[in-house]
Amino acid sequence: MVETIGKELVARKQFLKGDRIETIYLGGGTPSVLSIDQISMLIEIIRNQYFIIEEPEVTIELNPEDVNSHYALGLLRCGINRVSLGIQSFEDQDLAFMNRSHLSHQSHQSLDILYEAGFKNISLDLMFGLIGSDLKSWERNLLKAIDYGPEHISCYNLTIEEQTAFSKWEQTGKIRSIDESIQFDQFMLCHDLLSHNGYDHYEISNYSKPGFRSQHNTNYWQRVPYIGVGPGAHSYYGQSRSYNVSNNSLYLKSNGIPEVHNRETLTAFDEFNEQVMLGLRTKAGLSKELIASFDKSIVEKFYYNLNLLTQYDYIIEEEKNYRLSIQNWYKSDAISSDLFVIPEQ
Length: 345
Hints:
Largest sheet: 7 strands, mixed
CATH architecture of the largest domain: Alpha-Beta Barrel
Number of helices: 15
Number of strands: 13
Mean pLDDT: 90
Structural class: alpha/beta
Low-confidence stretches: none
Shape: globular
Radius of gyration: 21 Å
Number of domains: 2
Helix content: 40-55%
Distance between the termini: 44 Å
Strand content: 15-25%
CATH superfamily of the largest domain: Aldolase class I
């Protein structure tokens, strides 16, 4: 698998047309199953084949149970300078419910090890809206995270997807999702508590200390071109989006040749609606100048939809942008979809 990913990196080096690479992200699965030598090999290929800025943000997703001192020091030697640690919860009952492989004490140990090794940019993933959770248990999680003072915290709401074990359990009455009002209260508690402790709530699910926003994710939200390699990876450039086959065996058979990739061309409506969705997810909001750059017919339909929503105070209009209040951030998907411009049939 690692060899095939390496071949794909080489085969697709022209995809970004010589653009300078600002961020590298090893994730979308469990990259910590890779050895230090394997990670080093992939990063070396990237550095040899692509134009990298002098100090790129290089992130790896880690599970707490995979962290030890030797591995942490090895990651630093590879050039990894940012870690996204999948803690999810500091409570063992939550971890058992989510079928996680680690226990809460391993989360504490992994954080200690990473900071002792010398990492200066650590992000924690936490989840709220968990079955059986309440405001008190969520507050305990947040306070434990704050005690460590990580540079970045991502807080995601549990969503039960169709055709998953959680979905089947819910249908059979084995579990019952917590009330949406409690989930909203947990979202607001997260905002209030982290903001009070020096974290900037710069995107719906993301908080950072000054200077530590995720540059990689920020580039996504600003629709900066990117290349994704490996099974199921997506890439984007301008009006083109491509994605790899997600089946491991089929991916290996491709031998890293890019012709196996599926491609789609985004219409002006697709691009506009993505800008609306991504802009309203962020603290910066949706740029008025960006809206005006689209075709007049699209913009007119957008303003018609916008006027309907502003009557109900869903949208805050500022000098240069439109944004959502913190309370309405929680309903961002629904509000964004009401602003989408649909081409006439």
